[in-house]
């Protein structure tokens, strides 16, 4: 019976897509679970300032990977599908070119490491690790793109999970060994560097069949440069939008405030995992709808994704303080004071998820320049708001500026898709209307002081009741239809 059922499932066109997306999602769950488990460990060993240094260090890694590689590695997945593609020659050229660029620019950055460290407000000793780990990130992206196009989802997920858990294990060893030196953050960084070095060898081993050592071909280099360079503003804009507030807090207010904000932001980012999973799972169906021009099916799909995102957002909004307080039970430091900004961060991610529902059309039409404009405009708004408000109101202001920036992103995405590109209309009115109870719950949350009351059974019962009522409100009609069909 099971064999027959599996054979029927294989006959569906979506089977392979569903299989690979499920494997990716499982890997995401395992790594996000580690992110939750690691918080009480890191906050046990590190105080607010040390946690701030470690968090800011991590936030710069992606920027370093982009700048020190010219984004050349991003062209691999696109070139893979070119007719008559010389994949081996192209990958060899990208690997050689990124190594040379990284060696030249990385050497220059290391020479000026004192000035760079002062500018980004990180200890000088971290700069060398930043440069080395940034290039390991480039090797990972080359590995990831090759294996993704080969549909090696199991291998990608296993490597991702093993890498993250190895980093955590070695970071714990490093923090333990340096816990009495006042430089615990270096224990974490050195431990993660050791793991990165080991996995760099694995990445090279797995991509070696695509490599001709020291091969550099002009036409391949031009292709990669033409594709990668225009995406640098897009990549940098994304990092600015996600991390600039942390950098500015670190620079102007200090490591301790940066650590507090980074902790609260990491709790709020748990919603991002759900949003990403929902978007990835729906992407094949979206392309099918668009290819077949069955636009009447688009509204129900979009609204379902939106409602599930809201459901996850409201749950995290109500119980984030309880979850974080549970994780901080063994912490010696006072990270709880930052938790009351978590609901604002979650509201920002809700608007971000809505913008993604519109941006799918831009990607479908392959007019990615609009994505760059939208992202850079949102990042610029975030930058200006942070420069003005953070010095006045402290790290707390960054949560509100992030919310406003994502609202700008959503507004621009809607205007570009509906009025410039004439995309099929989405159920915008219903989506905006469904935000009203979310805003109401947020006001109730602060009005009753739930941001200051963690792990109290009475309040948790009330919050659970609030969540259940919200679920019935937005899914009531769907539940009713299911009951009618069942009867």
TrEMBL record:
Domain of life (superkingdom): Bacteria
Transmembrane intervals: 21-45, 51-70, 90-112, 127-144, 156-177, 189-211, 223-244, 264-287, 308-328, 340-358, 370-391, 397-421, 428-448, 460-479
Bilayer topology term: Multi-pass membrane protein
Main localisation: membrane
Assigned keywords, A-Z: Cell membrane, Membrane, Transmembrane, Transmembrane helix
Annotated GO CC locations: plasma membrane
Subcellular location: Cell membrane
Name of the protein in its database record: Polysaccharide biosynthesis protein
Species in which this protein is naturally found: Saprospira grandis (strain Lewin)
Organism lineage: Bacteria, Pseudomonadati, Bacteroidota, Saprospiria, Saprospirales
